[in-house]
Design goal:
This protein has 11 helices and 2 strands; from the N terminus they run H-H-H-H-H-H-H-H-H-H-E-E-H. By secondary structure, it is mostly helical. Strands 1-2 form a two-stranded antiparallel ribbon. The longest helix has 51 residues.
Amino acid sequence: MKTFNWKSEVQSNILALKLLGLWPKGDETYKRNSYTLYASFCFFVLNCGHNFFQTVNIYFILDDLEAFTSSIFVTLSCVGTILKCYGLIQNMENLKQLFVTITGEIFQPKGEKQQKLVEPSVKFWSRIYLLFRITCYFTAFFWSTYPILDKSFRVRRLPFLSWYPYNVKVSPFYEFTYMYQVVSIWYIVAASLNIDCLIAALNMFIGAQCDILCDDLRNLVATNGKELKEKLVRCVIHHKAILSLAEKSNKFYNWIVLFQFFTSAVSLGFSMFQLTIVVPLSSEFYSFICYATSMIVEIFIYCWFGNEVEIKSSIIPYAAFQSTWVGLPTEIQKILITFTLRTQRPIKMSALNLFYLSLDTFKSILRTSWSYFTVLHQANST
C-alpha cells in the first residue's frame, strides 16, 4: 500500500511559510546562507520594525481614547506575530522532527478504510484554512487601502498610527512610509495566519491518529493468541506515540496560545468599540468588520481542533471495550484492561495548563471580549 504523506496534506501551508522565510527547505534548520539573511530581514525590518514604530506612538496618544483603541489592538496583534515567529524559529529543529515522526510507520493508516476515516479531518482543516485566509487578506486589503478609498491620503494619512523620526507629511517620505506599512502588514498577516493554521494542523494530526487507533481497537481480531497480542501491543505503542506527539506539539505552542488568547480577547473588544465610533459603511468600518471576523475565526481554529483532540482521545477506552475481548486469553485481557485504565484520561491541549483548547474556552474569550467592549463603550459615553 502507498505511504500516506501527512506533510503533503498541509503543503500549501508549508509553502506559504517558506515564502515568508519561516520554513527552511527540506528537514534543515537555519544555516548561514541567503535564506537565513532573507528571513532575518523579514523578521526584523518588516515584523519588528513596524511594531516598534507603532508601540512608540502609543506613548503620545495615551490621553486620546479613540486613537489609543484604534492603535493598541493592531499593535497587540503584531506583538503576537513576533512571538509566533520567534517560537517557530526557536523550535524549528523540533518541529521538523515532528513532521518526520508523523510520516513514520506507526502513524500510517492501515488500508483504504482508515485513509477515508481521516479524510474528513484533513478536508475540514483545508476549508478552515481557506476561510481564514480570505478573512485575513480582506482585513489586510482594507487596512492598506482605506486612506485611498476615503481620500484621506490627500492630507497625508497613513494606514496605521505610528511614530517615525522624520516628517511623514513630506514627499517622498510619505509614499515610502505608506509602502513600508503596507508591505509590513501583509507580511505580518500572512505569517500570523499560517503559523496559526500550522498549529491547528498538528492538532488535526493528533485527532486523526486517535481515529486510527480507535479503528484498530474495534477491529482487534486475529487467528491465534500470539498474533492478537502483537496487535494489542502495537496499539499500546501507538497510543504512547500519540501522547508523545501531543506533548511535543503542546510544548511548541504553549506560550503562543497563551498570548494569543489574551490578545484576541482584548483586540476583539477594542475592534468592536471602534465599530461604534467610525463612519458606518466606510472603508475603515469594513476593515474592522473583517478584522473582528478574522479574530473570531482565529480563536475558533485553536479551540475547535484542540477540542477535537480531547473528544477523540476520550473515545479510545470505549473503542477498546468494543473489541472482541470476550473469550480472549487471560494475559491479553489483563493487557487490555490496563490499557483501558490508562486511556481513561483524555488528551487535553493547553496553554501552559492555564487554558485548555476547547469550545468552552472559545465561549469564555468571546464573553471577555464583550466585557471589554462594554467598559470602553461606557467610558466613551461619559
